[in-house]
Predict the structure of Acyl carrier protein.
Amino acid sequence: MSQLSREQIRTMMGEVLANQGKELPADDSASLDAIGFRSLDFSELALSVEDELGTELNFDAPGLRSITTVSDVLDFIEQLQSA
C-alpha cells in the first residue's frame, strides 16, 4: 500500500478547512477547537485519504478523543497508514 507524506496529509487537511472558508495555521501545535476543525471535518479528511490511497483506514472512536491539535491529526493518520 502506498502512503501519503505528512505534508500531503497536511495539504488535504488545509483543503477541508478551505472549503469552509477557514485556514490551516502554519503551527502544527494549533488547537483544533481554535481553528474550527470538528469531527465531521476529520471524517471528510479521512475519506479523502482513503480515496487517495485506495484503501480503508481502520480506526476507532476512542482513539479520536485524544486528538486535540493539528499535529495529533497528522500523527494519527500517519499511524493508521502504517497499521
